[in-house]
Specification:
- The protein has 122 residues and is an alpha/beta fold.
- Strands 1-2-3 form a three-stranded parallel sheet, covered by helices on one side.
- β1, α2 and β2 form a beta-alpha-beta unit.
- 13% of the residues are buried.
Length: 122
């Protein structure tokens, strides 16, 4: 074999590399999109259930996360509804707010909702 002539990858090698990359992307995308436990917070939240129907405040969401971290068996996601969160003291995060056992706690904006279009009928 001539060392100065570059070898082209075989079709089988490219197919295998593509298949492996596709599986890695699919696994990564599905793992990132599905949290086992989702809590909901809203600027007007007053509940303690932190559910979609009864979102809680930031501090209540943080308390709920802290109560679950010790026995985590999957990821926790806290979805924050749009709005201005007025707080009397800074929201601080420490070890009690982190995941355990290889699981994570993620705080993120809730997915954007589609607004109904306004119009008039004739």
């Amino acid at each position: 074999m001539n060392a100065s002539v570059p070898r082209r990858p075989s079709a089988a090698g490219l197919a295998l590399a593509t298949a492996v990359a596709g599986v890695a992307v699919a696994v990564s995308a599905s793992a990132a999109s599905a949290a086992a436990t989702t809590l909901y917070a809203s600027p007007t939240g007053t509940g303690t259930a932190c559910s979609a129907a009864a979102p809680c405040s930031l501090s209540a969401a943080q308390s709920a996360v802290r109560s679950m971290v010790g026995g985590m068996s999957d990821d926790i996601e806290v979805q924050l509804a749009d709005g201005v969160y007025r707080v009397t003291s800074p929201l601080t995060f420490g070890a009690a707010d982190s995941g355990t056992g290889g699981h994570t706690v993620r705080w993120r904006a809730a997915p954007a909702r589609t607004r109904p279009s306004a119009g008039r009928s004739r």
